What we know:
With 74 residues, the chain is mainly alpha-helical. It has one domain (13-70). Helices cover 73% and strands 0% of the residues. The protein has helices at residues 13-39, 44-70. The model has no long low-confidence stretch (mean pLDDT 86).
Amino acid sequence: MAFFKKYNGTTNVKLVRMERMIWALIYGGLLAMVLGYFIDQQEAQDAALFYNLGGLAVVGGVVMVFIRSRLRGE
């Protein structure tokens, strides 16, 4: 018995698209927040925009993870 079960994904195109969007939102949001951190030293107003948009993207990705967990791949 394997410790990790292999996940082969789904063949449903809509679910595959959703999974890709989830990770793009999460990683893109985290990247925007890191950029906001480095911009904060020069332009505080621009940094706040990066923080807010990045945070919204991460929250949106996490909500989509929860929604995706409730959908069936059949």
